[in-house]
Amino acid sequence: ERVKDLNGIDQIVLRNSQGASAKVSLHGGQVVSWRNDRGEELLFASTKAKGKAPKVIRGGIPICFPQFDSCGSLEQHSFARNKIWTVDESPPSLPAKDSSGKSFVDLLLKSSEEDLKCWPHSFELRLRVCLGADGNLTLISRVRNINAKPFSFSFAYHSYLSVSDISEVRVEGLETMDYLDNLCQKEQFTEQGDALTFEAEIERVYISSPSCVAVLDHERKRTFVLRKEGLPDVVVWNPWEKKSKSKSMADLVNDEYRHMVCVDGAVIEKPVTLKPGEEWTGRLEIIVVPSSFSSEG
Ligand code: TA6
Predict the structure, then answer these.
(1) Would you tell me which of 17, 28, 118, 223 could form a disulfide with 81, CB atoms 3.0–4.6 Å apart?
(2) pLDDT tens digit string along 66-80?
(3) Ligand 1 centre and the CA of 169: distance in Å?
(4) Tell me, what's the pLDDT at 52?
């Protein structure tokens, strides 16, 4: 069904027959909520964040396109997440349910005159958000170049996962992977540990990472398994205390940083180049499994 947020912007609510739900805002095409069949919220959202247009709430899964971070000429994580998207009516009406009981919505963002001023490339970005009959969340993005010349872009599903306490979180699947450390001028290192744990601020881009990464929340006996296609990199970020108190993180209050971890399916190190008419697809599926399965689980 459709509801409205604090600013009167439409949100689409997806539900499955088990009672799980997801909520997608037309503001940025952002998944702002994903609940399991017990109604537990699986994504982090800052309590203070009030979705002020054009600022998005801090949390959920912002879509970072056509540029992740501020490594280019555009603003932090660029503009797709600050725009108002539309429901893509060409597929079946929303929220569609298909035979397997999954519920999905198709959203569309087309480059506007305003966008072309800061990023002179005509594109269509289609996002399908799907809540499976088993409660899993799948996001499929398709970027099409409808321009007359090639363009390149980076992309990330900036996923704020809700965790009991960051010091109890382990990330598996990135062992021995090379990463760029954004806290050390993006210098390249190799992961040594058997799993990534958190004792301080971390902001890393793991390059050519495996298709499957697991985020284990020890206290809640819950593991998020992220399976990705077309997204060769993984961003792992937690601001820790000092950065979370900085001006740029004004919407992270008190010790909220302890209850979130960003593990983003992304394509950053080698941006995608599309010729006119070409299309790229980036697919992320997040599965929640009980207890501390390893990433092979
Ligand atoms: O995850 C990497 C990062 O670029 C961090 O540097 C931090 O700025 C964060 O993303 C910011 O995300 P936000 O949702 O605040 O735009």
Answers:
(1) 28
(2) 999 876 678 888 889
(3) 19
(4) 60
pTM for the predicted model, two decimal places: 0.93
Angle at 283 between CA 168 and CA 154, to 5 degrees: 90
For ligand 1, the distance from its centroid to the CA atom of residue 97, given in whole angstroms, is 34
**Whole-number Å distance between alpha carbons of 211 and 290:** 20
Domains parsed from the chain with CATH numbers: 2-164+236-285 (2.70.98.10)
Ligand 1 neighbourhood includes 262 CB (under 6 angstroms): yes
Å from CA of 96 to ligand 1 middle: 32
ipTM of the complex, rounded to two decimals: 0.94
Please say whether the beta carbons of 277 and 150 come within 8 A. no
Residue showing tokens 């017990």: 38
- Asked if residue 94 has pLDDT above 60, the reply is no
Instruction: Give Cβ neighbours of residue 89 (< 8 Å, ≥ 6 apart).
Output: none
Pocket flag, ligand 1, residue 7 (CB < 6 Å): no
Q: Ligand 1 centre from 58 Cα, in Å?
A: 10
Q: What is the pLDDT of residues 120-141, one digit of tens each?
A: 999 999 999 999 999 999 999 9
- The finding on whether 69 has its CB within 6 A of some atom of ligand 1 is yes
In the three-class reduction of DSSP (H, G, I as helix; E, B as strand; rest coil), residue 289 is classed as strand
Alpha carbons 200 and 158: distance in angstroms, whole number: 20
In ligand 1, the atom with minimum distance to the C-alpha of 68 is 4
pLDDT per residue over 19-29, tens digit each?
Answer: 999 999 999 99
Q: Are 214 and 223 in contact (CB under 8 A)?
A: yes
Ligand 1 atom closest to the CA of 264, numbered from 1:
1
Q: Whose CA is nearest to atom 3 of ligand 1?
A: 69
Is there an atom of ligand 1 within 6 Å of 61 CB? no
